[in-house]
Amino acid sequence: MVLPRWVWDYIKSVMEGGSYADVRGWFRDAVAPRHLARPTVSEITSPCPTKRDVYLRRVSKVAMPDNDALQMGRLIHEVFLTPFRIEPVFSKLDEYFESIINSYGELAIKYKGSLYELYRHAVAFALQAREENIPYSVEPLIPASSIGLSDFIKPDILLGFIPIEVVSSIQPSDDVSNIGRKELAVAAYALAIETWIGHPVDIGVVLHISLNSIVKLTWRVVRIDDTLRRAVLDARDNVARIVETGEDPGLPQSCPRTCPFYGVCHA
Ligand code: SF4
Fold first, then answer.
1. Fewer CB within 10 A of the terminal residue: the chain, N end or C end?
2. What is the pTM of this model?
3. Cα separations (Å) of 158 from 78, 149, 206, 235?
C-alpha cells in the first residue's frame, strides 16, 4: 500500500471537509514566475537558510563537494526506493541489497544492519502496493518550466496523485528542519502536477527516515494549502533572483555542519 494504513486513514480525515486554494498550478497569474532563471526543487529546498549554496554553484561556479551526509542521503534513498523500482523476486532481494551496499563501500557497511531493516520495510510496502494494485511510480518526470522551475522535477514516489518525498537525517538535530524543507518540495510537485494535467493536488506526504540507533520512519501528511503554495513561489523567486542578479546573499547566523559548502564558507 506504500503508505501505512493509519496514514491513509489520517488523509481521509484531513480531507473530509474538502479543500480550497486560491493558488493553483493552472492559474497562470498566481504562479507566473517573476524571473527568467528557473531553479530546481532541491535548490529552493536546500538546507542553506540564505541560499548561498545556490549562489556558490550557479554564480561562482564552485563545484559542490561530496560528503558523508550527501552520500548517506543517496544511500538511504536507494535502499528505500529500490524495492519499488524492481520486480520483487524473493530469491533476488538479498542480492539487490548487497549490490547497493557494495557500491557505497565503507559508509554502507557501517550502517548495514539498519539499512537492511529499512530495506525490509520498503520490500513490505512495495509488495503490499503491488498486491492491492495501487498505482505508483518512482521518480516520475513532471514538467515544471511553466511554473518557473527546472524543465522537469521528480518526487521520490508519486502515489496516484500524492507526491511522497523521502528525507533522512544522520544528525537528530536536523530532523525538524529537514521535514519542513520537504513540505515545500511536495507543494512544488503539487503545483507542477496541477499546471501539467489540471488535477488538484491537496495532500503530500513526507517520509522522514532516521537511522540513529534504531530505524525510525516518521510519516508527515502535508496539507498543501495556500500558505505553503505561496511559500514555494516566494522561495522560487528568491533563488531565481540570486541567480539572475549574481548577488551574494551572505552567510546565515548559523550553518548546518553537514552542509557540503561548510569548508568553503567557513574557510
Ligand atoms: S556553509 Fe552556510 S552559508 Fe555556506 S552554503 Fe552552507 S549553509 Fe549556506
1. C
2. 0.93
3. 16, 18, 12, 23
Q: What is the pLDDT of residue 175?
A: 60
**Which residue numbers in the chain have pLDDT < 70?**
1, 88, 170-177
Residue of 50, 60, 177, 254 to test ligand 1 pocket, by largest number of atoms within 8 Å of CB: 50
C-alpha cell at 199: 488535477
pLDDT at 2: 79
Neighbours of 130 (CB within 10 A): 16
Pocket lined around ligand 1, Cβ cut-off 6 Å: 48, 50, 52-53, 251-252, 255-256, 259, 261-262, 265
CATH of domain 135-236: 3.90.320.10
Domain ranges of the chain: 135-236
What pLDDT does 146 receive?
Answer: 92
Which residue's C-alpha comes closest to atom 1 of ligand 1?
A: 262
pLDDT at 174: 57
